[in-house]
UniProtKB/TrEMBL annotation:
InterPro entries: AAA+_ATPase, AAA_22, P-loop_NTPase. It comes from Lysinibacillus pakistanensis. It holds the Pfam family AAA_22. Residues 349-379 are annotated as: Disordered. This is AAA family ATPase. Residues 49-238 form the AAA+ ATPase domain. Residues 349-361 have a biased composition (Basic and acidic residues). It comes from the Bacteria.
Length: 379
């Protein structure tokens, strides 16, 4: 019998391997860091002053889960409005593909966005501003493939009439992966960003970029870019933080009770090993446990053991790369006294000795004697 504390019904154990895997894979654990970021992100979508919002974190932290959770949460918030007006699409999202040959394809991007809002006749969009200048143009009578400009105008129109509040873009660092280099060309990055910002302004829709720390590094290289974007950090769980470790253990226990196997695994017994091999990222942990579950079901094992965990863990070299990238990225969000002092030095706001002496000299109270030694013993 399955314990009453397990997070699935007994009947699930009688279902197929595929159904049990799907149950675990589809289940999203809303943990403290995800909840915190989700609240901040929704506040920015509803009330924020920035049209471009950037959610960044390490690979495997759970950004794609947050992406889906944001869409579901906004739709839930607007349930009444959606019932009253079935034509609106309050939020939509796409995953950005890695650009082929280091060249970003705007037409493909526009096509994917229009598809996400179920726009009809995407292949037959035309730019009327051009056609109207050409009375004898064959475009008036002949079906042609849509141009990028025509698709762009269609997005602006669709977002306006669909009352779309936000467009979410996963893997957004691919916007700036030009010639296989995120950071090598500030001018090209500026052009890419200006196109994104223009789309947000013209469509009156917030654009939310989900990406790795590479995305944040691009924006921090250019003051013009960084000041126009609202940054939201989605961090991993830090082993040096007691509260983080407590929350990580709670997440581990939840996963333990979600695994649809006859005998409940004792993941808590291997807490440190599990943390090390997911570097505190819940996405890496979830994918690891998915592999373990599939392995256990394939071999007719009744639970997940340490042997199973070890067999399905990522290679240590891969984990080292992920850990180094995460630690480097986290430094961007950590305020340091040294940075503050450097800023003061650059701006010339650090007080010097002359300023202090001048303030002391001019700051005496009226009518109060200066401290001095009186002469004594003289007639």
């Amino acid at each position: 019998m399955v314990s009453k504390q397990r997070l699935f019904d007994d009947e699930l154990l009688n279902k197929s391997k595929e159904e049990r895997e799907k149950f675990f894979n589809d289940y999203t654990v809303s943990h403290p860091k995800m909840k915190q970021v989700l609240i901040e992100l929704k506040n920015e979508i509803y009330k924020g002053s920035h049209n471009i919002i950037m959610v960044v974190g390490p690979s495997g932290v759970g950004k794609s889960r947050l992406f889906n959770a944001t869409i579901n949460s906004v739709i839930k918030d607007m349930k009444q409005e959606l019932e009253e007006n079935k034509s609106i699409i309050p939020i939509t999202g796409i995953e950005l593909p890695n650009p082929d040959l280091g060249k970003f394809n705007w037409k493909d991007f526009y096509y994917r966005v229009l598809t996400s809002v179920n726009e009809p006749l995407i292949d037959y969009k035309i730019d009327l501003s051009v056609v109207n200048k050409m009375p004898n143009s064959p475009l008036r009578t002949t079906r042609t493939a849509s141009t990028a400009a025509a698709l762009r105008r269609s997005i602006e129109s669709a977002f306006f009439y669909r009352e779309t509040k936000a467009l979410l873009i996963d893997e957004a660092q691919h916007f700036f992966k030009i010639n296989s280099d995120y950071r090598g060309n500030s001018e090209k990055n500026q052009k890419q960003f200006n196109s994104i910002k223009s789309l947000a302004n013209m469509s009156h829709t917030k654009i939310v970029l989900f990406g790795t720390y590479d995305l944040n590094a691009v924006f921090n290289l250019d003051g013009q870019l960084s000041r126009r974007v609202k940054e939201i950090h989605f961090p991993r769980y830090d082993f040096a933080n007691d509260k983080d470790i407590k929350n990580f253990k709670s997440i581990l226990l939840t996963f333990q009770k979600l695994l649809p196997l006859p005998r409940e695994a004792n993941l808590m017994e291997h807490f440190v090993y599990l943390y090390e091999n997911c570097i505190g990222c819940t996405g890496i942990l979830k994918n690891w446990l998915q592999r373990c579950l599939s392995d256990a079901l394939e071999n007719n094992e009744d639970t997940i053991t340490y042997t199973n965990l070890k067999r399905n863990a990522l290679l240590t070299k891969k984990l080292l790369t992920l850990a180094n990238e995460a630690l480097d990225g986290e430094l961007i969000f950590k305020e340091s006294k040294g940075d503050k002092e450097k800023l003061k030095e650059l701006l010339g706001t650090k007080k010097d000795v002359r300023t202090d002496k001048k303030e002391q000299k001019n700051n005496l109270n009226p009518g109060k004697r200066k401290p001095t030694r009186d002469d004594v013993g003289l007639i």
